[in-house]
Fold this sequence. Notes:
Blueprint: H1 2-9, H2 15-22, H3 27-38, H4 45-57, H5 66-74, H6 81-91, H7 100-107, H8 115-128, H9 130-136, H10 141-149, H11 159-174, H12 183-200
Helix pairs in contact: 1-2, 3-4, 3-5, 4-5, 8-11, 10-11
Amino acid sequence: MDGLITKFEALGLTADKAKEAAGNKKLAPTLDGLITATGQSSFSKNTGMLLYKLAAKVTKEKTPHGDYIAQAIGSGRLGSDEQVSAATKFCSKNDPTADEKAFDAACGVGVVVSDAEISAAIAGVLDSFKDTLLAERYRALGRALGKVKSTAALQWADSGKVKSEFDAQALALLGPKDERDDPAAAKKAAKKAAPKAASAK
């Protein structure tokens, strides 16, 4: 078990998380096998986390090509959660070794979405929602974010960067949250103001 803990720590897991994973009878052999499949013994934190997440979701029955996906992660062909999710979906129905070009296309291999492209795509969505957002403010953000997530240009973008840029642009457009974004607080303020208005008459 100590050997597994050391192996799992090389993925970037904390000592406690590595120990927990090594003691998990279902996860440990799967993760160990995926690490072995990469042919590597040290990993960047991103690669390590992708392998860990892959081990938590794959099964030999549903994902018979887990080793292939692990190799693609280890080599850098797959570098995001979105790409790995697409890979598990593709491999559940197809043999990636039979058509690697189809695998690459389905998983966005080689596609890089720049920060500028992320910013421009989000700006376009927020502009299309501008009237609604100015009227409903933060209550309408969920719909705008949903539209951003379904934007084809951002399919292979880093989801963390997308959310950070979305939040920044929304804040620039709407400003910080205030009483207008809390109906309960606004109602309470209106009730409080009503007696004052009546007594002033």
